[in-house]
Amino acid sequence: MMHIRNDHTIPRRVALCSVLTALAAVAGYIEILIPVNWFGIPGVKLGLANVVSLTALYLIGTFPAYLITIIRVLIIGILFGSPYSVMFSMTGGLISLTVMLILKRTGLFSMTAVSAAGGVSHNIGQYLVAYLTLNELKLYYYIPVLIIAGVVCGIATGLLGDAVCRRLKGVKDDRILKGDG
Amino acid sequence: MKSRRRNDIILILLFIIISVIISLFIHFRHEDGMYACVYVDNVLTGRYPLNINETVRINGYLGGTNVLSIEDGYARMTGASCPDGLCINQGAVNGTGQSIICLPNRVVVKITGQEDDGYDAYTQ
Question: Which of A123, A124, A180, B69 is the most buried (most CB within 10 A)?
Answer without folding.
Answer: A123
